[in-house]
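Subject: sequence -> structure tokens, single chain

Hey, anyone have a minute? Need the predicted structure for the following. Not urgent.
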Amino acid sequence: MATVKIQAVGKSEKATPQKKGIASVKKYEDIHFVDSTKPVWNYSLFTEEDIRNYQQGTLYNAYDKFGSHPINVLKTDGYYFAVWAPNATAVSVVGYFNQWQKDEFPLYVRLDNAGIWEGFIPNFKKGTAYKYHIKGFKGVDLDKGDPYCNFWELRPGTASIAWDRNKVWQDKDWMKKRKKNNALNAAWSVYEVHLGSWQKPIPSDEESFNTYLQMADRLVPYVKSMGFTHVELMPVMEFPYDGSWGYQGAGYFAATSRFGTPEDFMELIEAFHKNDIGVILDWVPSHFPYDVHGLFMFDGTHTYEYADMRKGYHPDWNSYIFNYKRGEVKSFLISSARYWFDQFHIDGIRVDAVSSILRLDYSRGEGQWEPNEYGSNGNIEAIEFIKHLNETIYRDFPDVQTIAEEATDWPKISRPTTEGGLGFGMKWMMGWMHDTLDYFKMDPLFRKFHQDKFSFSMMYFNDENFMLPLSHDEVVHGKSPMLYKMPGDEWQKFANLRLLYSYMFTHPGAKLLFMGNEFGQTEEWNYKTELNWPLLQFDCHSQLQACIRDLNHLYKTEPALHELQFSHDGFEWIDLNHRDQSIIVYRRKGKKPADDLLIVLNMTPVVYRDWKIEVRGKKVWKEIFNSDAKKYWGTGEVFNPSVHYKLVDKKASIGEINVHLPALSACIFR
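Reply:
Had a minute. Here:
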């Protein structure tokens, strides 16, 4: 708890903090006593520089000033409160503790027109639920949660909870080496998880949740055993409605109370780090819901959102869009992103719905949007916000990554801002995902007519640093689970799915796989129940899971699969000329030619023996992976215990290898 010494003598006296790191109290305005036992001191922890930065969008640690903070004033413990409500005429702190009496604990507005209300309530205790009662524009009465609070009531409760995080981190080993583990030339195999439905204490009970601490005991060992390098958690920032999956958030500085306390969530992250697994959080700066306790119309006006609904309303999600032009909103959002890196040691954020942030015409028809000052569809202040966000994160946390979910052809998403880019580290490769799934859904007999769709991704791959996603969005809303996207009978469905995953793990770029995809869920994802773990009693599912485990191992241990995954030097087409047979061959290359791998995909249910492939350089090749192996529920009948090599052109160092190709299979040779 911070201790602040204040001289209670009159106006304009200075107060000096006793503890290093606490901002100086600039002016002591007065002491106000609600009654003889409930004094509320009016003072500020903000410096003049803080206010300037806040208004300019450059207060990057706003979470240290806004919200509720335990401090000691005049030898009295309590909580300091600060909230931005520029068009309010009165603000007070209310809650169960005072029977929601709106006049008992007023806050005081700063005299510099910053729109910030603040004050200290003595004897306010950790764990106390509260809201801000706001007398807003035109006299409207509002009870709002604290935008900067670190803990919320469990829904359907909507009050904020005064908190004081107390965590001594024990992940120093990870933090020292994460620069290497989070680098773009490292393996990025990401397991996407919805914490509420990965596994439940009572499988079909919507209200049954494992805690963060139980996840540390159950989820962490599973992710490690499967060989994933990172986990991506669908939004854990507090949200009112389970069915939004976290993408309609209210608490941008609070891990959801559904699974425990902020410290419990820290323990989960630490458990991942102790097992050499990085943590990525989904983060949603694109929109927020209209819940009455949230950010919408916060002080009776469009405080956080654009007032012009051509920019401020999101028609797809019935939600509201942040006003990226307003400095206070930019400080709020950048501080939110920075908070999770600073206080929770996360390794990356995946920024949701970037396309909707950048484009004024996103999901809007003619006449529903207004062009920018240059007559085009870019939201200029939003573009600058994104650049500012990425510059700040990489400046302060150079060992992490920011990842954009962006589905259009907007250029240079993952290029530095100094080169005219937006500054993200990676971008989801949505085009690859759609083209690949369309290709694999086809009857194999027709794939020969659509090979260009399959190979198209390499035409533009080097434009960005791409992550290949097979995410939650592809297994909901009637799209069917991954297994049932595949054509054919049961054996062919599993063979096709193993082939798709093998292609994904050998294609350049980082990888992301949604939970359940690794063992072949037979139903679409349902956030109300847990994954269908009983499927693992069947060999076809448990052995598909084993295939993913081995692909993860290959991806991490074979330099050619990750060293140059974002470079044109890391990939080479070898054979695209056998369309009728739908056999495709490419080479993945590492920094050392000796590490090169040859990948052969047979896209049809036809076995080919003595298939000849031209190779350069290396003369000795060995099969190191075969998706048709018995241990993966394949036939195990067609494999390559040895690979015959024949020199064709000694001067050009061109040779030929002779291999056997199983049906609907991927074979990897080193």
